[in-house]
Amino acid sequence: MQTIGGQVVHGLKNGREFGFPTANVDLPTGARPPFGVYAAFIEVHDGPHAGRYQGCASIGTKPTVGDHPPNLEVFLIDFNGDLYGREISVDLAHYQRPEKRFASVDSLIAQMGDDVGQARRTLAALGPDRHGSSIEAGSVFGDAAIHNLAAAE
Ligand SMILES: Cc1cc2nc3c(=O)[nH]c(=O)nc-3n(C[C@H](O)[C@H](O)[C@H](O)COP(=O)(O)O)c2cc1C
User: Fold this and answer.
1) How many CB atoms lie within 10 A of CB 133?
2) Residue of 74, 90, 98, 85 whose CA lies nearest to 148
3) Cβ within 8 Å of residue 18, ≥6 positions away
4) In this structure, what DSSP letter does residue 137 have?
5) Is residue 56 lining ligand 1, measured as CB closer than 6 Å?
6) For residues 37 and 122, is the Cβ–Cβ distance under 8 A?
């Protein structure tokens, strides 16, 4: 298991238009989780929305929409609110797939819908009790993730 924490910063602002608004967090120096999509538990530490949430995180350079520095962004399931400037922790509970460059934004949006559906099912199966508990690294980063990390270097 790997948990990444940081302040929510302003992203490209496409997420809302795509139907998947995300909280963007800069990757801490030295944090090199494999690029890709994860089912995640999120903790918002401060502000009116403080609490625990479930979500679907993406780590990478968003190759479909240009060339951006690596960052982490997370869509919070069943959440609607402003998190800019808040401190959050993102617990990467399960690796779902590598990041991909899609031929069109429509294909990316369709895939994001599938990703969120899969994250919902995975997190429901893990159960709320798993939040904050240790999940073995081997179960999080599969072969695809390791391959993806090698490709990114
Ligand atoms: C669940 C999820 C999966 C994503 N998968 C990819 C991907 O495979 N390829 C990609 O280029 N971007 C991916 N993204 C990033 C989107 O390109 C990004 O959310 C969108 O451009 C909005 O970015 P913004 O919040 O900085 O505006 C993903 C985002 C999420 C939330």
Assistant:
1) 12
2) 98
3) 105, 108, 109, 112
4) H
5) yes
6) no
pLDDT at 10: 86
Q: Please tell me the total number of residues recorded for the chain in this structure.
A: 153
> Of all atoms in ligand 1, which is nearest to the CA of residue 13?
27
Question: Whole-prediction pTM value?
Answer: 0.85
Tell me the two tokens of residue 125: 């199966």
Cβ–ligand 1 distance for 3 under 6 Å, the answer no
Ligand 1 centroid – CA 21 distance (Å) = 10
Q: How many CB atoms lie within 10 A of CB 47?
A: 16
C-beta 14 within 6 A of ligand 1 = yes
Q: Which residues are catalytic?
A: 73
On the question of pLDDT at 150 being above 70, the answer is no
Domains of the chain, each with CATH number or no CATH: 2-152 (2.40.30.30)
**Band of residue 1 on the pLDDT scale cut at 50, 70, 90:** low
What local confidence, expressed as pLDDT, does residue 57 receive? 98
Run of H or E residues at 117: helix 105-126
d(CA 93, CA 122): 9
